[in-house]
Amino acid sequence: MSNKVELLAPAGNMEKLKMAVQYGADAVYLAGKQFGLRTASDNFTLDEMREGVAYAHAHGKKAYLTMNILAHNDSIEQVEPFVLEAAETGIDGVIVSDPGIFRIIRKVRPDLPIHISTQTSTTNWETVAFWHELGAKRIVLARELSLREIREIRERVPNVELEMFVHGAMCISYSGRCLLSNYMAGRDANQGDCAHPCRWRYRLVEEKRPGQYYPIEEDSTGTFIFNSKDLCLLPHLPDLIQSGVSSLKIEGRVKSSFYVATVVKAYREALDAWYAGNWQDVQSWLEEVGTVSNRDFTTGFLFGKPGPESHNYATSSYIRRYDFIGLVTGFDKASGRLVVEQRNHFRTGETIEVLPPKGPVVSLTLGEMYDAEGNRIEAAPHPQMKVYLAGVPPFPEYSILRRRA
Ligand code: SF4
């Protein structure tokens, strides 16, 4: 890989993969229908994986396959045939946490680069060296490491790629190694099906008084005692680049394509600015990542153990300042109209913003609109309907139309 740090983005399905690539990711990570630790995202069939990998490669990007479940006996048998088929799609590496899966891949496809998932909770340089000696190409460090610890790991084990999370949701346990959801909802986080009960509001009930809920208060701030804010290390990218890590990862395979595009673009611009010697006030990039759903931001463990400021005690609802209303799919040269696929209702006269894959956000007021048959319409009420916008610039394909929420 180049000397520049890699920006690695989530690809929960084909559209998200393409958006990540278009908005500036250097690589994407995706899962097949098995073994991928995100059952809520669409994930990829083998044919889709082949298509997605080819799309990434055609744009000079990489695609890694996530296989980071903790496998039980009944699923371990299926690993070998799946790996052999997935390897034929051209994937650039496999992300694993289960040593059994690691062993199978080393045995049947020793040429396939292996990345050790953050689910292994690698928190020290001896563990990094351990995995490296076994043949791992890259270690995804635990989110629970400070910048000082990352620097020391880099110094002590210089010849292995290190990857770290820079943006997205945080677990209250060591990244997903948690049975809370399994116990409370029958949905196992370690099999990719977490129901996020750590974010729920808890009350106390005495068993002979059903319906009487007593508040639990850790202190006067309330009861969302496990409700971590989201990680955002964008202001600290210069420190992260200089720490010697190889890859910066954005979490969120179940997040929307709007989310993926917006966050990737902000980090892309910030990284490019730093490499161009043009690091500037980060406020505009922070505002951009704040336009899509988040639980407010924290630097997590980067500067040591997080305190109360890393938790959101007031609410577990997402903050979202903009709605995704349309996706540019082309420009109709004959009529001079921009072709947009509707994602949320919008109408003539509304002021909206356009987020193109590259370049500044543009604000505009919607003028004349037409349907696919050329009929004039005042509104775009149906999901996925094609709308033709007159009097707007020919924004590139994959540009996002958004409106203040
Ligand atoms: S319940 Fe919360 S802490 Fe546990 S795995 Fe799910 S998100 Fe992480």
From TrEMBL:
| UniProt KW Hydrolase keyword | yes
Biological process (GO) annotations held by this record are: proteolysis
Which key words tag this protein in UniProt? Hydrolase, Protease
- What's an example of a GO molecular-function annotation for this chain? peptidase activity
Ranges where the Peptidase family U32 C-terminal domain occurs: 320-402
In this record, what's one Pfam family? Answer: Peptidase_U32
* PANTHER family (UniProt xref): PEPTIDASE U32 FAMILY, TRNA HYDROXYLATION PROTEIN P
What's this protein's family per the entry? Belongs to the peptidase U32 family.
**Protein name per its UniProtKB record:** Putative protease
Q: Which organism is it from?
A: Thermoclostridium caenicola
